[in-house]
Amino acid sequence: xxxxxxxxxxxxxxxxxxxxxxxxxxxxxxxxxxxxxxxxxxxxxxxxxxxxxxxxxxxxxxxxxxxxxxxxxxxxxxxxxxxxxxxxxxxxxxxxxxxxxxxxxxxxxxxxxxxxxxxxxxxxxxxxxxxxxxxxxxxxxxxxxxxxxxxxxxxxxxxxxxxxxxxxxxxxxxxxxxxxxxxxxxxxxxxxxxxxxxxxxxxxxxxxxxxxxxxxxxxxxxxxxxxxxxxxxxxxxxxxxxxxxxxxxxxxxxxxxxxxxxxxxxxxxxxxxxxxxxxxxxxxxxxxxxxxxxxxxxxxxxxxxxxxxxxx
Amino acid sequence: xxxxxxxxxxxxxxxxxxxxxxxxxxxxxxxxxxxxxxxxxxxxxxxxxxxxxxxxxxxxxxxxxxxxxxxxxxxxxxxxxxxxxxxxxxxxxxxxxxxxxxxxxxxxxxxxxxxxxxxxxxxxxxxxxxxxxxxxxxxxxxxxxxxxxxxxxxxxxxxxxxxxxxxxxxxxxxxxxxxxxxxxxxxxxxxxxxxxxxxxxxxxxxxxxxxxxxxxxxxxxxxxxxxxxxxxxxxxxxxxxxxxxxxxxxxxxxxxxxxxxxxxxxxxxxxxxxxxxxxxxxxxxxxxxxxxxxxxxxxxxxxxxxxxxxxxxxxxxxxxxxxxxxxxxxxxxxxxx
Lengths: 312, 337
Prior knowledge:
heterodimer, A: 312 residues, alpha+beta, CATH 2.40.50.100, 5-stranded mixed barrel, 4-stranded mixed sheet, 27% strand, B: 337 residues, Ribosomal Protein S5, domain 2, 6-stranded mixed sheet, 4-stranded antiparallel sheet, 16 strands, elongated
């Protein structure tokens, strides 16, 4: 019932010291983007001369030198040098699939927390409304906004555009988007999410994953395929419902197992893809002890990660 | 990140907890499973005793997303105070909530939370501190050590009070009470040459009186105790095995569960804190120091007794587990030294 351990020391990579470059070491101005390992900066690291390059995000200029202000990877667009931080909030890109949580119901819009630098906004005009067909939003819709989404609700949406103030505008104008049910949320760093062909993943264990580009991952019971549902078949009852279906214990166990797998991978900073999660699931099922709570130990995580890396 | 919960998430959590025969929680634990508890002592160099407790995660200080853990550090500090008949036991708990543990809170909210938790921790430990009181007396009826417990919450992913009490227990385990030597005012009695009648019963004189007199010099200036050895840490508390433990039972009738994470706390807000201590290994011997029901819903009076009984069982096992761990650490440290 109680397992009591000693706290482990934070891990440090021994290589970091070797890779750190001294600011005094001048390099050829055009030569700064070498191979990948060289491209990880530490704060204060010399990148290039400010005479030939412009400084972008994540850098600053000191004595005609462009220096990194964050730990991250160097990116260069023509003469603009920027550093993308390894650990940061989500920066939206149009077309990204994100999962967000409603924080506020405002006039004709919902405020959505998408773990971004700027808040997300879902306009009333960007959601599917009952009745199916595309129609103008009426005042009556505006009055019953809370029946669609209320504070705390989770939803899956797509990044539609950016407002002038940088706010991320979302839309849910597809039957695949909308309110989330029948599962639980796991959050990882947005840096660990790879762009996939489809962010709706159905694992063979009867678990669906929705992998938001903002690091929110929805793990849920497998939902039936959309059987060519037309816009007319759109039922507000079903889409905006807060009620979960009946979920049996086996599915719950599978959901918990997938959740723990994602946590372990995130703890070891392994980028998440559908295939590695499926592999990890298979590996977990092959183990002697299938108890999900066994997965919470550090040793189990180490073993799993070693096995996965060996498999690659 | 906001910590609110959608209705469907709350429904998923509660229906999982109520599922029979064996409920599965979000991370695969059963109802009565604690997350792993990591404990260490002597983490703050300048304190008289300190402890750190981490629930969940992997016991490391990685407060990344998706790896939730509750972590608290408690430092115990001893200060000399005069024993005043009006004041109770010399214990002051203060909890600081770091903004990084509660990024969604504003500063005033953080202050409120800190004072709430301080009061909760104080109440949880007050009664058990009474047992320690005799060990903290320096000069009976005059001076004693005042025990300050300063706690910092590094991260919170639920069940923070249990974490705080475990850290406080580790700090008290680690506490070294400085050895003191009481000073009596012994006078160098210059034998009066002239008159025998001048002799007075010296024991009845007070120190000040004699100092003023001038004819008789006190060995030491005004001051009533001294440290035996400045460089010595002091001696640990006696009966450390009976330091308090706190268990929080989250109530979702007809079941209850232990060690809720934040989402579970949101979905099931009613919980009862209980602080126990176990003076001996005898199963019949336990002291319930404090119970506190928190949350919106009521529980019937008749169900309290079984809950306390259940809580005692969990607390006893936690107590045993912590004692084994802390003793083991002490032995290791002694072996290194």
